[in-house]
Amino acid sequence: MRxxxxxxxGSVARSLxxxxxxxxxxxxxxxxxxxxxxxxxxxxxxxxxxxHKTLGLAALVVxxxxxxxxxxxxxxxxxxxxxxxxxxxxxxxxWTLYGSMVxxxxxxxxxxxxTDGFAPILWPLGQGLPLVPKSPALAMVMAEVHxxxxxxxxxxxxxxxxxxxxxVVIDRDGVLGRMTRGVPAGRGIAARHALPALVAVAVFGAxxxxxxxxxxxxxxxxxxxxxxxxxxxxxxxxLGFAVRQMGSAVTGSFADxxxxxxxxxxxGAGQVTVTINMDSVTIGTVTDQAKGxxxxxxxxxxxxxxxxxxxxxxxxxxxxxxxxxxxxxMPVTLPFDLTITDxxxxxxxxxxxxxRDWQVGAGYADESTVGFQVDxxxxxxxxx
Length: 384
What we know:
- Helices cover 40% and strands 26% of the residues.
- It is α+β, with helices and mostly antiparallel strands.
- The longest helix has 36 residues, at 136-171.
């Protein structure tokens, strides 16, 4: 029989129940495993997270199908409606479980859509979501909400299983048989009230409040560099970079840097020394990883310095010289455009580098996880 009755579950509801259980339990295991894989095994970590996210979307689809089917069906009544407290708690757990089945994958999907380049979903429909901007801050908040809701899901599953065991071992009332074989149990006397749903809403509200209260805040301001003595004073500027991670472009930037510029507009010749505070880097949700020993190693190498000679080059200019990063010194050529109007200079430039030249991410010897090419972008305005 496909449809539910007041005392039993039909074959469709039972199939969706056990399929949901299989997916959720598998994905809980994948998520816990992925969290514990060390960064030194990044390729494996990314692969497991990709499977986890993909299975999470499958869980969402199945959960929505299960909820949609349940809305069209008779709901089997509690076997012991006279046990009011037990029935209330059981129904509250069910409401929390149903809510978690939707909210956990949704919050995880929003977190994924708000960032770039890490552990893609294994499907051809894109990685973003409508109305979800690329925002590291949003991604961090949603990651915390997803984490808290995931543990609410785990807790609901544990309580649900414990209740099933009680019905089998202590009550011996046939409740488990309703979901395994579709056999009737109980008298079919409904006991419906809104309190269990309100309890579940309160649980999710408390969970969301806790997640928001404990979500990572903006990092404490890093020590800033002293302004360098310069013939041309930088009044505004951006120093950014882009790299491919898991096949997607990921952008980062440095918030704190100084430039000492000597430049003769008549000859087009000059010198520039750029000092970068490496601790001011941000790159989506992997900023801490970028600062670590495997990449920029900020603790051991807090600054990077570029010393360039400026000269005309065709219709534009070029700055050439060594970049010292992680105690590795390699030449860099930075072509740029420059306009000077009424003493205000506006410059935009781009350079292409290979991270391996400075031993950045040396442990990532192929591009399957982190690309070799790094695209540097510079834009600034300066006054003399």
